[in-house]
Design goal:
Layout (H helix, E strand, L loop, with lengths): L1 E5 L11 H15 L3 E7 L4 H5 L2 E11 L2 E10 L7 E6 L15 H19 L5 E5 L6 H7 L11 E5 L28 E2 L2 E2 L1 H8 L2 E4 L2 H6 L8 H6 L4 E3 L26 H15 L8 E8 L8 H11 L5 E8 L1 H9 L7 E5 L3 H10 L2 E4 L9 H7 L3 E5 L2 H6 L11 E3 L4 H16 L1 H13 L5 H15 L3
Parallel strand pairs: 1-2, 1-6, 2-5, 6-7, 7-10, 10-11, 12-13, 12-15, 13-14, 15-16, 16-17
Antiparallel strand pairs: 3-4, 4-5, 8-9
Helix pairs in contact: 1-16, 4-5, 8-11, 9-14
The protein binds adenosine-5'-diphosphate (ADP) and alpha-D-glucopyranose.
Length: 473
C-alpha cells in the first residue's frame, strides 16, 4: 500500500515542534509494518538538504491564480530516513531558510499542494492514501474531489491528522482563484466564518480525520478556535490516536547528544552526571531538584504564567529548587522570562531553539513542567518519561492520556487541573517534597523508563485505518 504523508515539517529535515517529530517517525514505523509510507514536504534551505544527496525526479509548471510557477520534485537518494522523502522546490517561494512566518505563507502552502497534485497526475504515481497533516496540507482532500484538474485522483481516500486545531490557515475569498478548476458552487466546503478555512475544509472533505490523542478528539468539540460546531457535526468521522515517540532518536542509552548515556539500571548516576554538567553550564545548584520547561513560549503552552510562577516559587521555596528553561516564542513572554533572570538565583533560561540542549535537559532535569492550556498530544512528557524525568502536567489533551498522577494506582507524574498560580505552586511543592524521598524517585524513574510509548502500537492503528478505507488487506 502506497501512503503519501504531506506535511510542512519532518524531522530531521525541518522541525519547528512536534509535527516534525511525528512525520519524521510515523512513516518509518509504518514501513516496518510493510506499508510503503512516503513523505512529501516543501523544500527549505536547511542543513539537511545541503548535506544529503537528492535527485530531481520531476520538473513542472503550475499556476497560482494568474501567476505561473516552475517547480521541481527532489527525492532523497539514500533513504536515510527509512522512507522515501520528496521535497517540492519552487524558486523564490519554497526555497527559503525558515519553515513559517513569511508574509506570503498562504501562497507558499497552496503552491506546495498544487505542485504535489500536478506531479502525481503527470507521472501517474500510484497513491492509495493521502495522509495530510495540519492546515498546511488541508486543501488536498477538497482539491482531489472537487477540482476538475485533479479528477483522476478523486477516488483516493484521504486521512487528515489534526496536530493543532488552533491554527487553521484562514485566507480571504480573494485567494479563491488560486484553486484551479473549482466550481464556485462547491465554495461552501472551503468556508467557515466567511473565510476560506483549510482546516475546516479538510475536516469536511477528508474520509477520516484523526487527532493526536483521544482526549483531544473530544476537546475540539468544546474548544477549537471557532470550529466547535463543525467537530460536533463531523464527529462520526473522527478517531483519536495517541502519538508515539521515535525510540531510536530518543534513547538515553545511545543518544549521541548526551555526554553520559544511561539505561534504567544506571539511571541514578547517569542523570546525576548530566544534571551536574548542565547545572554547571547554566550556573545552577545541582544539589536541588532541577525543574525545566521546554517549548514554544505561547499561550497554548501556558507560557505566560511561567515568569510569575517561578518568581513566586522562589519567594516561597527559596533555595529549594533550580529551574532551567528552554524556549522561544512571543516576545513579551521571552522578555519577562529574561527579566526575572537578572535578580533570581538558581534560575536560568535559554531563549532560542536548540535541539541538542533539549536532549541534555530531558536527561539532566528531575521534573518537566507542562502547564498547557491546550495540548493535542504533547511529546515533551513522553520524551521526559523515556529519560526518567517526572512530568508535571495540566490535565488536558494528550497529557491527560499519558500521565497518571503518582497518587493514583500505577502513577508516576504530577497532575493539576487548572491554570491557576496556586495550583501550579502546589504541584511544584509536591515535586519538591517527592524529591526528598530519593528511593521513591529512583523507583519512579525506572518505572517511567519501562513504559512503552513507542510508535509500534499507534503506527499499527493508522495502518488499520488505511486498510478500512482502501479495502487493501
Ligand atoms: P508542539 O508541537 O506543540 O510545540 P510537542 O510537545 O508536541 O509540542 O513537541 C515539541 C517538540 O519541539 C519537542 O521535540 C521539543 O523537544 C521540541 N522543542 C520545542 N521548543 C524547543 C526549543 N526551544 N529547543 C529545542 N527543542 C524544542
Ligand atoms: C502539535 C501539538 C502537540 C503535538 C504535536 C505533534 O504541535 O501542539 O501537542 O504533540 O502537534 O502531534
Amino acid at each position: 500500500m502506497n501512503v503519501l504523508h504531506l506535511s510542512a515539517e519532518c524531522y530531521p529535515v525541518a522541525k519547528a515542534g512536534g509535527l516534525g517529530d511525528v512525520v519524521g517517525a510515523l512513516p518509518k514505523y509504518q514501513v516496518g509494518l510493510g506499508i510503503n509510507a512516503m513523505v512529501a514536504m516543501p523544500y527549505y534551505d536547511k542543513k539537511f538538504v545541503k548535506e544529503h544527496p537528492f535527485d530531481t525526479v520531476f520538473r513542472g509548471t503550475s499556476k497560482l491564480g494568474y501567476r505561473s510557477f516552475d517547480f521541481e520534485i527532489l527525492k532523497e537518494t539514500t533513504d536515510v530516513l527509512g522512507f522515501e522523502l520528496y521535497l517540492v522546490r519552487i524558486p523564490e517561494l519554497l526555497d527559503r531558510p525558515e519553515i513559517y512566518s513569511y508574509p506570503d505563507e498562504r501562497e507558499q502552502f497552496v503552491a506546495f499542494q498544487l505542485a504535489i497534485l500536478d506531479w502525481i497526475i503527470k507521472t501517474e504515481k500510484s497513491i492509495d492514501v493521502f495522509h495530510c497533516h495540519d492546515h498546511h496540507t488541508g486543501l488536498i482532500p477538497f482539491l482531489i474531489q472537487y477540482s476538475s484538474n485533479f479528477s483522476t485522483l478523486a477516488k483516493i481516500p484521504s486521512v487528515f491528522t489534526i496536530h493543532n486545531g488552533q491554527y487553521q490557515g484562514w485566507m480571504g475569498w480573494d485567494k479563491f482563484h488560486y484553486l484551479p478548476g473549482v466550481d464556485p458552487s462547491k465554495g461552501g466546503l472551503l468556508e467557515w466564518n466567511n473565510c476560506i478555512n483549510p482546516l475546516a475544509a479538510a475536516v469536511k472533505c477528508c474520509w477520516k480525520y484523526t487527532t493526536v490523542s483521544p482526549s483531544y478528539l473530544q476537546e475540539l468539540k468544546i474548544n477549537s478556535n471557532g470550529l466547535e460546531f463543525l467537530f460536533e457535526l463531523e464527529g462520526e468521522k473522527g478517531i483519536g490516536i495517541l502519538n508515539g515517540i521515535d525510540t531510536e532518536v530518543w534513547d538515553p542509552a545511545k543518544d549521541p547528544m548526551l555526554s553520559f548515556n544511561y539505561t534504567k539500571t544506571t539511571v541514578k548516576s547517569g542523570k546525576e552526571k548530566n544534571k551536574a554538567e548542565i547545572c554547571h553550564a547554566y550556573g545552577l545548584n545541582p544539589d536541588k531538584p532541577l525543574f525545566t520547561f521546554i517549548g514554544r513560549l505561547v499561550l497554548e503552552k501556558g507560557a505566560e504564567k511561567l515568569a510569575e510562577l517561578i518568581k513566586e516559587m522562589m519567594l516561597r521555596n527559596a533555595d529549594e529548587f533550580s529551574f532551567l528553561l528552554l524556549g522561544s516564542g512571543e516576545k513579551d513572554i521571552e522578555r519577562d522570562l529574561k527579566e526575572i533572570q537578572t535578580y533570581l538565583k538558581n534560575y536560568n533560561c535559554y531563549i532560542g531553539y536548540d535541539e541538542q540542549l533539549s536532549h541534555q535537559i530531558y536527561s539532566g532535569a528531575d521534573f518537566i513542567l507542562m502547564p498547557s492550556r491546550v495540548e493535542p498530544c504533547g511529546l515533551n512528557q513522553l520524551y521526559a518519561l523515556r529519560y526518567g524525568t517526572i512530568p508535571i502536567v495540566r490535565t488536558t489533551g494528550g497529557l491527560k492520556d499519558s500521565v497518571i498522577d503518582v497518587q493514583d494506582e500505577g502513577g508516576y507524574g504530577i497532575r493539576f487541573e487548572n491554570l491557576e498560580l496556586m495550583e501550579m505552586i502546589v504541584a511544584m511543592q509536591r515535586a519538591i517534597a517527592l524529591y526528598q524521598n530519593q528511593k521513591k524517585i529512583n523507583q519512579l524513574r525506572k518505572q517511567m523508563m519501562e513504559l512503552d510509548f513507542s510508535w509500534n502500537k499507534s503506527a499499527q492503528q493508522y495502518v488499520e485505518l488505511y486498510k478500512s478505507l482502501t479495502l487493501i488487506p
